[in-house]
Amino acid sequence: MSPIAAILCLLHLCPAATSTSEPALVPVGAMWRYRLNQIGTPPPPPEWIQPDFDDSEWAEGRAGFGTNLGDEVTVLAGTNMVSACFRTRFNLDDPSTLRWLLLRIDFHSGYVAWINGREVARRGPLTDPPAWDETVPFRPRPATEEVDLSPFRDVLRAGTNILAVQIHGYLRPAPALAFNAELRAHFSRGPYIQQVGRHSAHILWRTIVPTTARVEYGIRPDPDQTLETTQLTRQHHVILSNLPPATEIYYRIRIRNEDGEAVSPTASFRTAPETGPVRFAVLGDSGSGTLPQLQVASCLATAQVDLVLHTGDLLYPALTHALADLRLMSVYETLMRRVPWYPTPGNHDLYGPDLLQPYFDTFALPTNSATGTSHFYSFDFGHVHFVSLFIPTLAPFRNQQPYQIGPDSPQLQWLADDLARTDRPWRIVFFHSPIVHSGGHRYDDYNYNGIQDRLELQAWLLPILTRHGVQAVFSGHDHSYERLAPIRGLHAFVSGGGGYMLYGLTERDPLSQVFQARFHHLECEVNAETLLVRARDRFGIVFDTVTIPRVSPPTLFWLPGPSAPLRLAWNSAPGENYQIQAAPTPTGPWQSLQTIRADDYETAWPVPLNSPEQAGFYRLLWMR
After folding, report:
1. For 22-40, how does the pLDDT look when each residue is reduced to its tens digit (9 = 90+)?
2. 3-class secondary-structure state, position 5
3. pLDDT tens-digit readout, 198-227
4. Rounded CA gap, 417 and 402, in Å?
5. How far is CA 600 from the centre of its chain?
6. Domains within the chain, CATH numbers bracketed
């Protein structure tokens, strides 16, 4: 070390050794040992909070815990409970390099927490040490808090550490107990990526304390480019630009303040290609941190995809700042580091007191030209033009009137203009409330006008979607999986089984081809001429597969008209020639009737009223 550098270190201007560790020391859904403390039974042994206590005889379960409240992974089954004890282990190679520590906890109704036997946080209990059967003031659920435990770094040790938590009820016996938590180092959220384009990408993260940052990135695992931020803040958002297309980009985040420096693990993402195949996943109605949500998330984390579409209702009961991490961002953390998410708002995403503010604070999404916001938006990735619409339901949400859909709405006009401008061969649209479905929301009338919402959406959307050649729409809202028969080349899917409660069949729609009340996500592959959709359940089993052509076979349908009520229609490619053929039987012989050059994405040919008798069957030949 040079003399000048040595002087700077003596003046505390040189940070100590840099810490690189996985942010989640105790992740969401970790395994815990636990003991239920009941009236009339012996209290827990005093040494239960110590690292060397033998808890092998205790029950074991996955967080979160609750007394059958409906939003837990592990149910605490018992009677006359007054409190409960929880213990879990985490490992550290060199605790001296750990700079900042955060406990994020959701509890009902009070708690005390220890690390390696030393108390680090409490809410509710007043006695010292806290009595195991002490009642606390009532605190309603959810009761999520973030506690900065950085002052207690000195209690950490190399090797195995113990986090212990005692949950207290507000009555004796307790009507309800609940507990969920995660322990994090340095980063309270992320890092995670958003809006990955051909030449740019957004990286977001949050820190436990205000820091500056340096993003190190490049095409090699040891990145050689940097981007500095100089403002001390907890919420960070940077944009990487001038990136090469279709290239693996490596990145890590180095955060610092006067107390020290830490760096995230190196992660990577792949920039979008100029054009070409795309792999994406779809899920919706994700859940409240229950076991099915964790199982779907675990299965989804192994999917080899370029991006994720979320069909709305990101978490339950509402998307709020307090719940966004324990029930969303921390659940999908490893996937979000390498794969951008593109959500669309669901009704539960607007049920919080701040409406969509937590949604916009969490995701950095494209904006639209009609309102200048991200309520609805579009983007290109490879062969595909993706469009997200703002259809949480047709309910008149407070302060959302300028963005809601309707026959003369700015959103509907923007949709038509946006689809007319794109040059991508594939067009895929996603939104929350489905246009065709058979599940629990089939008869919804959220705007109370006496017309079922799905029928209004069909009237507003189908003419635009079919005219502009949209091949697939994905929706949620119904907590199930459903595949519908194509409507003039438009294939509709419902994917609302991301982890919350499931809905059964209400009334089978005539277009319904597959309906299953099953937790799942979809894995989709777009190539030049086909879209392959696989439905995969929470155990990894593929239970439905379908291949969608870019240009669908022709269908006969009736349209009002004085001279030709019967028309042959197909989803066409503009500029391409199609030969219409007719035959008396399905197997021929086939006779050419007419060759048509398509000038739009949907072509309709009027079947002549004096069509020859032998023209009982029709087919289309794409002249390529």
Report:
1. 899 999 999 999 999 999 8
2. helix
3. 999 999 999 999 999 999 999 999 999 999
4. 18
5. 34
6. 19-185 (2.60.120.260), 191-270 (2.60.40.10), 278-549 (3.60.21.10), 555-623 (2.60.40)
